[in-house]
Amino acid sequence: MIESRAPDHPPRAGVIFDLDGTLADTLADIAAALNAALHAYGHPAAPLDRVRAWVGEGLPTLCRRALPGADDATLHRFTAAALRSYFAHPCDHTTLYPAIRELLDVLARRTIPLAVLSNKPHDLTVQTISALGVAERFNLIRGYRSEQDKKPSPAAALDIARAWQIAPAQILFVGDSQADVATALAAGMIPVAATWGFRSRDELAAAGATIFVDHPAQIAELPQLR
Q1: In this structure, are 107 and 213 located in the same domain?
Q2: pLDDT tens digits for 34-83?
Q3: 80, 179: one domain
Q4: Annotated catalytic, 180?
């Protein structure tokens, strides 16, 4: 299920935000959790730039990239160790990107429904958004629950569209990764590529993005939201 507050009447447009690398810089806390697990298993820490290249497709995939060649049982235990570490320290260094809070305030004043859709585990997604002090700005929050529903599957994004009673073509999907662009395209939504996150403009363009924003305030100026 999606945590949802259904609108009183169908709005004309909505915005789905990715979390990691889009709303918030979470990289240091993700790396710390991963490196705690690597240390426990006798491996050297992964540099931050390498972790940046690995993130975006969920914790199991991140752990698989950090521990290539591990058998399924080892990988399962390793992922559980990283998850425990992350739950213990989810927001030690995590912060909203500059101007994100102001953007959310502007869109909320326009009564535009806002959602978070992340490949971060669901409970951690909710916990992080709450710790950042912006949970009240979102009427839908959804994180990773299963491999089959994680981005770039469009399933969760389309669930949000149905909950909002908005046609997918009227929803902006704002993200910083190839998975976000692919999700938007698969769902028939409008991909908006945030260039301040974990991936380069060239990577996002190669994924199919055609709308780029270099500052959060530019999102509020997109014609679909005016």
Answers
A1: yes
A2: 999 999 999 999 999 999 999 989 999 999 999 998 999 999 999 999 99
A3: no
A4: no
Q: Which of 8, 18, 20, 214 is catalytic?
A: 18
User: What's the confidence (pLDDT) of residue 1?
Assistant: 36
Average pLDDT score over the chain: 94
The answer on 121 and 68 residing in a single domain is no
Q: Position 122: which residue type?
A: H
Cα torsion 25, 101, 118, 169: sign: negative
147 pLDDT more than 90: no
Provide the residue range defining the domain that includes 62: 27-88
Q: 114 and 16 in one domain?
A: yes
In single-letter form, the type of residue at position 56 comes to G
Which residues, in sequence order, are CB contacts of 2 under 8 Å at separation 6+? 140, 141, 142, 156, 159, 160, 163
Residues 102 and 197 in one domain: yes
Angstrom distance (rounded) from CA 142 to CA 123: 9
Angle at 21 between CA 20 and CA 25, to 5 degrees: 85
The domain tally of the chain equals: 2
Average of per-residue pLDDT across 103-119 = 97
Say how far apart CA 201 and CA 149 lie, in whole Å.
26
R_g over Cα of the chain: 17
CB 189 within 8 A of CB 168: yes
Neighbours of 141 (CB within 10 A): 22
